[in-house]
Specification:
By secondary structure, the chain is mostly beta strands. The protein contains no helices and 11 strands. The strands form 2 sheets. Strands 2, 4, 5, 6, 9, 10 and 11 form a 7-stranded mixed beta sheet that branches. A 4-stranded antiparallel beta sheet has the order 1-3-8-7, with no helix packed on it.
C-alpha cells in the first residue's frame, strides 16, 4: 500500500522554525519527485517546494526562497522541509506528494496534477 505520512506541524510564533517530515512507503524511492504543497482555508492549494530523489535537484516557490530548505534522506524514503523565519501568512495545511519517474525537478517540477500520491497533511499555524 502506498503511503505518504507527514508530521511536524505545530503552532509556532512568527519568526520561529519548524521541520516537516514526509515518510514514503509502498513504492521504490528511486527517481521520485516529492513536492510540498500548502492550502489555507478558502484558498487554492499551492506548491511550496520540490525535490527529486534522483539527482537531488530542488525547486522553491518565490515566497519561501531563503526561508525554507527541502532535503531528502533516500535511505529512509523521507523528505524534510525546514522552515525558518515563519510568518503568519505561512499558516496552512501542508501536504507532501510523490510522482514517480522524475530523475530531476529542473527546470520545471511536476504540477499539482502531475503528482500520483498524496499524504493527509499536517497543520502549521503561525501566530503573530
Amino acid at each position: 500500500e502506498v503511503q505518504l505520512v507527514e508530521s511536524g506541524g505545530a503552532l509556532v510564533q512568527a519568526g520561529g522554525s519548524l521541520r516537516l517530515s514526509c515518510v514514503a512507503s509502498g513504492f521504490p524511492f528511486e527517481n521520485v519527485a516529492i513536492g510540498w504543497f500548502r492550502q489555507a482555508p478558502g484558498k487554492a492549494r499551492e506548491d511550496v517546494s520540490h525535490i527529486s530523489s534522483g539527482d537531488g535537484s530542488t525547486y522553491y516557490a518565490d515566497f519561501v526562497k531563503g526561508r525554507f530548505t527541502i532535503s531528502t534522506d533516500n535511505a529512509k524514503s523521507t523528505v524534510y522541509l525546514n522552515m525558518n523565519s515563519l510568518k503568519p501568512e505561512d499558516t496552512a495545511r501542508y501536504y507532501c506528494a510523490a510522482a514517480r519517474g522524475f530523475r530531476t525537478v529542473r527546470p520545471t517540477p511536476p504540477g499539482l496534477r502531475g503528482y500520483d500520491y498524496w499524504g493527509q497533511g499536517t497543520q502549521v499555524t503561525v501566530s503573530s
